Amino acid sequence: MSTINSSDIHLSSFLLMGFPGDEAGRIWMSLPLGLLYLLSILGNCLILFIIRIDHQLSEPMFRLLSLLAATDLALTLSTLPTVLGVFWFQSNRITFYACLIQLYFIHSLCSMGSAILVAMAFDRYVAICNPLRYTSILDPIIAKIGLVALVRGAGIHFPIPFLLNRLPYCASNALSHPFCYHPDVMRLACADTTINSMYGLVLVLATYLLDSVFILFSYAMILKTVLSRSTQEERWKALNTCVSHLCVVLLFYSALIGLTLAHRYGKNASPLLLVLMGLAFLIVPAALNPILYSIKNKQIRSALRKRVCTKKRPRM
What is the tens place of the pLDDT at every residue in 275-297? Predict the structure, then answer.
């Protein structure tokens, strides 16, 4: 009897996972998902538009915010076709190479977003600890920060599709999410994935762990400076400028840790939990970031009100 060589077997497509359950339940759960996508696209586009047209929002902080909004928008658009295809049109199949392309963009854009959060923490450090030189320090390096974030995200994740492409896939072709994710695709391989696992660990250590250390260090220095201020009002005013960034950081890293732990220790976890954790990581931060900055930042609120009043003002 002839045997099949596993190295000759290669899947042509993957099946994406939606919410398990009956049809009515999936429809009702897809409605808030569509709302989150709408909030993410409109919110980040509005942030980019307001910062672009309002010359008062030319400080380094707002230029970094525009980089974050652009990254969140790109991440949203990279997952929108498959996620809405699964939940709204029951189209749950993706070709192998389209899956590799999507996961490359997802991982690269998440890494870029993490790098921009580090830059925003440094921005807050300079604004509080050295306010007189704030503009002169950050203005010349904003473009370089964006370039470094782009090159790092795109460069270090470039080998992932090739590492996955070399593996044979002869087991189930059902993924755990309505999008492609490196650990999720890797678990379907029927060969040794040590190289993929080790490279994934190196990526986590070199990006998210290192970035979180830099953010913690920046806020330790900020806290040290703030505590040296003479009055309670000055301390609160300084810390209040960091609230939006802290909320965004906590939202991003808590969702990332939750998804990582779900894949690492949740082999017997509910399929619904894996789907929810994946969507929480990719969609919720991108949808809430513009809201957090719009609520807490007076200059953005003022620019929005001015724009709305200009639109409503009748022409003479």
Answer: 888 888 889 999 999 888 887 77
Q: Quote the Cα angle for 239-241-247, to 5°.
A: 90
Strand partners, 14: 94
pLDDT for position 86: 87
Is the pLDDT at 5 greater than 60? The verdict is no
User: Helix crossing, 284-296 with 243-265: angle to 10°?
Assistant: 160
Q: What domains lie within the chain, and their CATH numbers?
A: 21-305 (1.20.1070.10)
pLDDT tens profile 22-57: 566 566 777 888 899 999 999 999 999 999 888 888
Structure tokens that stand for 272 in this block? 């619904």
- Is the CB of residue 118 less than 8 Å from the CB of residue 211? yes
Give the C-alpha separation, 67 to 69, whole Å: 5
Any bridge partners for residue 15, and if so which?
93, 174
pLDDT for the residue 157: 95
164 has pLDDT over 90: yes
